[in-house]
Amino acid sequence: MKKKFLKTLCLTALGIFICSTITMAEEITTSAVIPETSTTVISTTDTTVASTTNTPTDTTIVKKKPKIKSTIKKISLNKTVLRLNKKDSRSLKALYTDKKKEGIIWVSKNPSIAKVNKKGIVTGKKKGTTYVYCMSKSKKVKAKCKVVVGNFKYMAVTFDDGPSPYTKKLVDSLKKYNYNSTFFVVGQYVTAKKSVLKESFNNGNEIGSHSYDHAKLTSLSESDIKSEFNKTKSVVKSAIGIYPTLIRPPYGSFNDTVSKLADVPMIYWSVDTLDWKNRNVNYVYKEIIKSADKGEIILLHDSHPTSVDGFIKALPELNKKGYELVTVSELFKLNKKNLKPGTMYYNCY
Ligand SMILES: [Zn+2]
To answer: pTM of the full predicted structure?
Structure first.
């Protein structure tokens, strides 16, 4: 009887030992997906999350599972690589559904290279490469982005007259290179291309207005100009959730009335590639490479397949030469220049 009791006791002890070993192993596996420098959890107000993260080897605290209810099923980021210079800040966009408001946190693997704040704004600190993680508060799901702090030349390539049947190919190619552009869309084409516009916007591209009918605004009455702007605003908002952030008047044609009615900044261009006239892939490619420079605003049209293909052909070379293609608004922000509604801007030197 005594022997049997001792045997049972031994087996129970062994069972507890095995169970706790498995639990610890699980905890370690879970914490292994969290970057080492997770003491830099920025946005959390939840101490359970912070303490669990900071001391992954402390079993007493590790055993305290976060009480956060995991409701976010998937997180994705708009970029897999973010390139920026020292002291510059660029935003990452996290895409996820969070109806029950679990919330997300941002973490930099190495904050001495690049730090990230609770809004997903990454700031370059010194040259190097690191990763930024975006995770649900329960840490059940996460996404990461490689961050390269280097010496990049920011430039904006803009596309007018779309969306068109060629826009999707362009949006995909921009994503492949983690580049962004500003699309000045013609309002009347938007509704039929809602999904590509939304995808483009989610990838971090900027949507500007190029009027509703591609009208020469200077030959219209005040009320007709207003209608061109308002109709475009409304279709863009229904496609992407926000109004166009910039205006490029068709033909670059504007006057005081147009300026007065424009409730966002107006953008001209510093390089006219004449891609609409020379519909040849190699011509467009060479024009882009020839004119590429820091602070330029290059004009192209995604209504022509030759322009889209010429641009795609130029992408690997632009990348190799250290160009970082950003939206027009980001270009000005990176250069610490403010944009005022109703004012026309030609470049960002
Ligand atoms: Zn146009």
So the answer is: 0.81
Residues forming CATH 3.20.20.370 domain(s) in the chain: 153-345
CB-facing half-sphere around the CA of 250: CA atoms within 13 A:
19
210 included as an active-site residue: no
The pLDDT tens digits for 32-72 are 333 333 333 333 333 223 333 333 444 455 566 656 778 89
Burial annotation 285-302 (CB, 10 A radius, 16+ → b, else e): bbbbeeebeebbbbbbbb
Question: 187 CA to middle of ligand 1, Å?
Answer: 11
275 CA distance to ligand 1 middle (Å): 12
Q: Which of 160, 275, 302, 309 is catalytic?
A: 160
- Strands 206-209 and 182-185, how do they pair? parallel
| Cα–Cα distance for residue pair 162/35, rounded to 1 Å | 42
What CATH number is given for 76-150 in this structure?
Answer: 2.60.40.1080
CATH superfamily entry for domain 153-345 = Glycoside hydrolase/deacetylase (3.20.20.370)
pLDDT digits (tens, 9 = 90+) for 71-99: 899 999 999 999 999 999 999 999 999 88
